[in-house]
Design goal:
Elements lengths: L8 H5 L6 H4 L30 H11 L6 E4 L2 H12 L6 E4 L6 H8 L3 E4 L10 H7 L4 E7 L11 H10 L3 E5 L21 E6 L12 E5 L1 H10 L7 H11 L2 H22 L5 E4 L6 E6 L2 H10 L5 E2 L9 E5 L3 H13 L2
Parallel strand pairs: 2-3, 2-4, 4-5, 5-6
Antiparallel strand pairs: 1-7, 6-7, 8-9, 9-11, 10-11
Helix pairs in contact: 3-9, 4-5, 10-12
The protein binds pyridoxal-5'-phosphate.
Pyridoxal-5'-phosphate (PLP) binds next to helix 4.
Pathway: Lipid metabolism; Amino-acid biosynthesis; L-histidine biosynthesis; L-histidine from 5-phospho-alpha-D-ribose 1-diphosphate: step 7/9
GO molecular function: histidinol-phosphate transaminase activity; pyridoxal phosphate binding
Family: Belongs to the class-II pyridoxal-phosphate-dependent aminotransferase family. Histidinol-phosphate aminotransferase subfamily.
């Protein structure tokens, strides 16, 4: 598979911006830095951050079991998704394949980049409709977005289906694993060597508890990552984010404990919610949220708001009629949700 052929010609030709800190990489306090027009007086943040995020990427590579050169960091995974569009999709000419209901940003970014969208809805059990997907893809199809576990449906896509899709799609396959740490399925990072057209997206916004710092990552072949790195804004990960993330990643036991609590709570919420009459269906969850079908989503959504509980109304999403998406909170928050749900008439 020739990845270079999938990259837009203008991106291949592009000469990346070389920042001051890129040109002179050794960054020790003993040196006198008069190269980047920074304010020399110490504020703790007066210097530009490391544009290659060496310490943070080294630690993440260790945790994710990949090579340092297979990693790119973004200002949230949303920034990386945008870079992927700009790398591979020629506006007004090429298209991407989306499988609704799924994460809304893929569509927003496609529209922002003026790239055509071909939608192939999931089946009623929220799995990809493989034969329809293989039917609609054409020579202009550049990216297939798979979200597993999927948002808002909460389930994972079957391994065999993903294999068939990667093997048969001649463009880039993006697997968004924002919720992988809550899942029983293994990450596709371990399969990257087999699939040169695969990009795995993860984030520190969910399981790692750092939505506020905006840190997303993509893991792929060194070939793909080199191109993405060459077009990213030079200082896209700020100093505060790099420091905060490194601190959080130094204490993985804490993260793992929180994930375990959330998974136990997911089990508890699902088992208690079953007996509530207004809940008509609970979809299987491999994430830190559950999708439920209720009798009247708009009405129940508003009643919950009146009781000061905010959930996500997914009623308008395809296949999600009268569905609410409930994030698993702290044990106290979940108890409150269950109490209020039981009281609704
Ligand atoms: C929450 C979420 C993300 C995270 O986006 P960030 O920009 O990293 O916060 C990515 N993909 C999906 C499917 C999500 O639900």
């Amino acid at each position: 598979m020739n990845i270079q052929k999938l990259i837009r010609p203008n991106i291949l030709k592009l000469k990346p911006y070389a920042s001051a800190r890129d040109e002179y990489k050794e960054f020790t306090a003993a040196l006198t830095f008069l190269d980047a027009n920074e304010n020399p007086f110490e504020t703790g943040l007066n210097r530009y951050p490391d544009p290659q995020q060496v310490l943070l990427k080294t630690r993440l590579a260790e945790i994710k079991g990949c090579n340092y050169n297979q990693l790119i960091l973004g200002n949230g995974s949303d920034e990386i998704l945008d870079l992927i569009f700009r790398t591979f999709c020629e506006p007004e000419k090429e298209n991407v394949i989306l499988l609704p209901p799924t994460y809304g940003m893929y569509e927003v970014l496609a529209n922002l980049n003026n790239v055509e969208i071909i939608k192939v809805p999931l089946t009623t059990d929220f799995q990809p409709d493989i034969s329809s997907i293989l039917e609609v893809i054409n020579s202009q199809s550049k990216i297939l977005f798979l979200c597993s576990p999927n948002n808002p449906t909460a389930n994972s896509i079957k391994k065999e289906s993903i294999e068939v899709l990667i093997e048969n799609f001649k463009g880039i396959v993006v697997i968004d694993e924002a919720y992988i740490d809550f899942s029983e399925f293994e990450s596709w990072v371990s399969r990257l060597d087999e699939f040169p057209n695969l990009i795995v997206i993860q984030t520190l916004s969910k399981a790692y508890g750092l939505a506020g710092v905006r840190l997303g990552l993509a893991i792929a072949s060194e070939e793909i990552i080199t191109v993405l790195n060459s077009i990213k804004p030079p200082y896209n990960i700020n100093q505060l984010t790099q420091e905060t993330a490194l601190k959080r990643l130094a204490n993985l036991d804490l993260v793992k404990n929180q994930i375990n609590v959330i998974k136990q709570e997911r089990f508890r919420v699902i088992s208690e919610i079953k007996s509530i009459k207004i809940i008509h269906k609970i979809y299987p969850s491999d994430a830190n949220f559950i999708l439920v079908k209720v009798d009247d989503a708009n009405k129940r959504y508003q009643q919950l708001i009146n009781q000061e509980i905010v959930v996500r109304n997914r009623n308008k999403e395809p296949l999600c009629e009268n569905c609410l998406r409930l994030t698993i909170g702290t044990p106290e928050e979940n108890t409150k949700l269950l109490t209020v749900l039981k009281s609704l008439i």
